[in-house]
Amino acid sequence: MNTRKTKIIVSIILVYLCNSAIAQSGPSYLKGSLCKKEEDIIISFKTAQKKKLASICAGPGNSYLVYRYGNLDQVELNYPTLLNSKSWKNFFYSSYSRGLGESNDPRGNYEISFINSGTEYSVYQDWSTENSYEIGIIVINKGRNYKILGIPESQTGSLSRLEAFKDFLSNQE
Asked: Is the per-residue pLDDT at 3 higher than 90?
């Protein structure tokens, strides 16, 4: 066989093997989220402006709860850093819903929040009437509020899944 062809074939094989090793060395996430393959998605969605992902994930057997924000190449915020059964108590959960009635407009809200280095983060779902639905993140830092809207069509899961874990979470009073 021609030495030049052999070198080209060997180079292609090496590039393939290197790319495969690099791809396998990083974390493997569930589709449309920053939840790892062994975790369950509580909620995940893309943000409207920067197309980042926000994900809340439960560990295997509900062993921990974690919030991740960023993209598949780089997670910018991973909270809390210590993932164990005590992690659930780092989050505050609240919910409200009102059904349709004669004088009632149906509405509801699910919210989970936490404080990291003095900054408060709240992931929320709000709805009222059939055409009004919003998901997103509210960030409160040094008295200033920032709202990061989510894209509802990109949503996987729901904060309503946390209703089953109210005893694990801190309650917002």
From this structure: no
Rounded to two decimals, the pTM is 0.79
44-173-65-51 Cα dihedral, nearest 10 degrees:
20
Reported as type and span, the H/E element at residue 24 is helix 3-25
Q: Are 92 and 114 a contacting pair, CB within 8 Å?
A: yes
Average pLDDT over residues 88-102: 78
140 beta partners: 120, 145
In the structure encoding, which two tokens stand for residue 77, read together?
């915020």
Q: What is the mean pLDDT of residues 69-93?
A: 94
User: Rounded CA gap, 119 and 74, in Å?
Assistant: 20
Amino acid at 92: F
**Count of CB atoms within 10 A of residue 171's CB?**
9
In this prediction, residue 108 carries a pLDDT of: 81
- Are 104 and 128 in contact, with CB atoms under 8 Å apart? no
